[in-house]
Structure formats: C-alpha cells, structure tokens
Amino acid sequence: MAQHVAQPTATTPTLPAKLPLSAVVPWAAFFGILMLVLLYFVGAEQGATSLVSGAGVHEWVHDARHLLGFPCH
Amino acid sequence: MNSATVRNLLVRGMLAGLGAGLLALVVAYFLGEPGVDSAIGFEEAHAPAHEHEVELVSRSLQSTAGLATGVLVYGIAFGGIAALAFCFALGRVGRFSARATALLLSGAALLAVYVVPFLKYPANPPSVGDPDTIGKRTSLYFLMMVLSVLLAIAATILGKRLAPRLGTWYATVVALAAFAVVIGLAYAFLPVINEVPADFPATLLWRFRLSALAIQATLWGGLGLIFGELAERLLNPKPAAVPAAGVPAAN
User: Given CB atoms, is A51 within the 8 Å cutoff of chain B?
Assistant: First the structure.
C-alpha cells in the first residue's frame, strides 16, 4: 500500500502545479508597485526627477547607480 | 493555502535577492569600484569648469555603504519582482521543475531587464554623460527596459500559443526570432546617445562596462540559483517525514 503511493513520486519528477491567478494578482499588484518604488529610489530619484529635495539620495547611491547601469548626472 | 504560498515565495524571493545582492556587491566593490575611482580622477583632471561644491557624501562612504545600499535594495526589489513573476510562470511556461523555472526566469530577466537595454544604452562611468541630457537619457533607458520586458513576456506567450502547432522547439525559435526582430527595430529607431568625452580612456570605459555586466550576471545568476533552491524546498519538500523513522534501509 505504502509503496503503491510512493512510486509515482519516485519515478516521475513531480511537476509543480500552477498557482491560481486570483491568488497571485493581489500580491503582484501591491508588492510589484512597492518594489518598483524601491527601484525608482535606487535608480532615478534626484536625477531626472526629484521627489525629495536636495541631492542626498543621489549622492548616497551614486556609485551603485553608475555600476547598475542607470543614467546618472 | 495558495495565497500563503505566494506570500512565502515572495518572502523567499526577497531573501534570495538579498543574498544575490551580497554576491553582486562583492563583484561591484572589487571589479567596479576601481573603474569608478579612475573615472572620477579623469573627471577632476579634465573638467576644471565643473566646479565641485561641498561634497554631501564622501567618496569612501559612496564606495562602501552607499554602494551596498544601492546594490542590496536593487537585489531585494528584483528578488521580489522575480518571485512574483515566478508565481505566474510556474507550471505555465513548460514542463519545468520549480528550480529550473526559477533559473530560466532569472536568465530571461538578465537578458530582458539588463542586457537588451545595455546593448543600446550601456552603463557609463562618472564623467561620461552631459548633465543637461539626464532627463532624455533616463526616459530612453527606462523606455528600453520596459519595452524589452514587455516584448519578452509577449514572446513567451507567443511561443506558448505556437507550441501546439509547431512543436516546442520551433515555437521557441520563432518566438525568440520575433523578439530579436522587434528589439532590432527599436535599436534602429530609438535615438543614439554618445556623450563619451573625446579623450576618455577607451580601456577604462570597456572595463567599466564589463564590470557592470559582471555585476548583473552575478546578481541574476545568484538569484536564480538561491531562489530556485528555496522555492523547490517550499513547493516540493523532501519526503523525509513520510517514511517511518524505523526503515532507514528502504531508501
């Protein structure tokens, strides 16, 4: 009995099931935007556009911005 | 249950992004920083008109804590995005295990997010780039990145649609060719940007761009491997608890 149950997992590699879109979309919408905001602060804030006044953010991530390929001053 | 799975994958993606970011940080510090320093040296020697105000953040902070902040936040953010993309791709792109899906996805992301935009608008060291065109350069760079990612998604969907008619091999070839043609058109029609000063050392520019590429390859390669491992263990736990403790010889 136990062997009968175990056999399929041993012989065929288990292919993962799809995650239903209804479960993925809410997370993707909220966290996707949050992640993009993070990327904006690393890649573009106080360059072409400025949400925070001054140049502190730009200067702090200056080297990362150059090395990660973002246009920088 | 499924929503919890997505949440768990997202957390793992961000952790994997942090790990991959640490690897990329090592590459950035040892391969990239010497180039940044040389380029700043060039800038100071060759552009006396560009007067320097009081520096807000010292070079030693920029090249360590500042660099780390940027690279790690970048890693975490793309780790999260990759995990969400993985949730969509899992079981939908083809007959791949969780681990293989993660590596395939991160390889595709390296190409679509970085390499394709980089070939048109490559990374530039300090002193390359006119401050007056930052707006134009930023919009073009992000346009290229968004275009490339959307086209990669479209190509994946096209490949899946064609697969029943053409078979997986030819469907993949056609989808990749379609991607290359449209990207080639974008390369041809988007404006060229060349703001390299005439006497900027060519080898320094080349080494800087190679190091930028190495950072991304490390980041995405690391992300694919680490996240793949974490996702595989979450979705396909080893049946260690299933056989009774008394039969170690059975397996």
Answer: no
